[in-house]
UniProtKB/TrEMBL annotation:
This is Nucleotide-diphospho-sugar transferase domain-containing protein. Pfam families: Nucleotid_trans. The chain crosses the membrane at residues 47-65. Residues 163-361 form the Nucleotide-diphospho-sugar transferase domain. It comes from Salix brachista. Residues 88-109 are annotated as: Disordered. PANTHER family: EXPRESSED PROTEIN-RELATED, GLYCOSYLTRANSFERASE-RELATED.
Amino acid sequence: MNTAPLFRPQTTTRRKLPVPTRLLRTRFNPSFPASTSMFSESTFPRAVLVLVAISISALILYGAADSLRFNSSSSGYPFNIFPSHRYSNNSGSSNSDPKLSINDDDGGGGGDDDYKLEKVLKEAAMEDKTVIIATLNEAWAAPNTIIDLFLESFRTGQGTRRLLNHLVIVALDRKAYRRCMEFHAHCFALVTEGLDFHDEAYFMTPAYLEMMWRRIDLLRSVLQMGYNFVFTDADIMWFRDPFPRFYLDADFQIACDHFLGNSSDVQNRPNGGFNYVKSNNRTIEFYKFWYSSRETYPGYHDQDVLNFIKFDPFIEDLGLKMRFLDTAFFGGLCEPSKDLNLVCTMHANCCYGLDSKLHDLRIMLQDWKFFLSLPPTLKRSSSMLWRVPQNCRLGKHPLIACLNFTI
């Protein structure tokens, strides 16, 4: 191996300098002879190396700082938030690559009002400060998947199109946020540090459980800001305006996988994918209790924990008025609505896997459109039934054929 140094030591014998060094000497001091240049042969390469090292370090630090604009926050909220840019109704889409900016406000000022969760809610809210909230990740945001069917149901439903003006879509990852910005006015990004929700979250996996509990904590924040909400999973089809079917005296009302006939019966089996909650001290304390109960019942998702705590004396002490929604109006694949003249929403619950959901939701929308095409007399006398579930029959999946749960 040749171990000769890159540069020979200077001698008293005059020799020809390498071309790059000669050129640089001339550039730095064209009027001085080589022997008086500011860089000697031995120090010049070292200086160049130092400058290169500094440049590379600066580039690395800049890149790290740029990534932190998305990944870090000094927000007082337990999650990072990226409120939406406004959607342009003229162009039909948002900017092609909207800049995601972290809300660094701690709730006490100092942040840009355009980047606050409260501003997004205010823009979407009805006159009584009610919003509709749905969550979305990359798997459900892809074209021709869940989100497109969800929005199509609003557009084809009776009295539901106008409700899109009050819908806030909470994106759980960057791609879902950018996709939302392409088609909707009120998008909001919720990022949990150290967790990635962009893939399909399979039932009862750690990612699924974390996603469910992040949702509960977000909804608690919405209540604390003074907003009522209807929370809806994106795999729920909205066929009619549900507000006339809500109970006026209830604080918290929730859809059911199985409804026993009495809206006050706590033995009903609720489904956390659809609920209407009014903002008051009772509901705020209830959501705090619900979220904290995840530690009392580790390994359970929010719906299971709700089934535990609904019997807790704390609920009665709060004075919380809880009601369970009839599946005749708020149905699902667990217990479908039997009369298409009454149905408000239909949920793809009791269903395993994205492909199965998509298959049955498309059939559900086809059934609804066919029902709308009937003459009024036939609609009123129709005994038409849903053609679903098909692929969503739990017994068709070998891993869950013998399990008694809902998704």
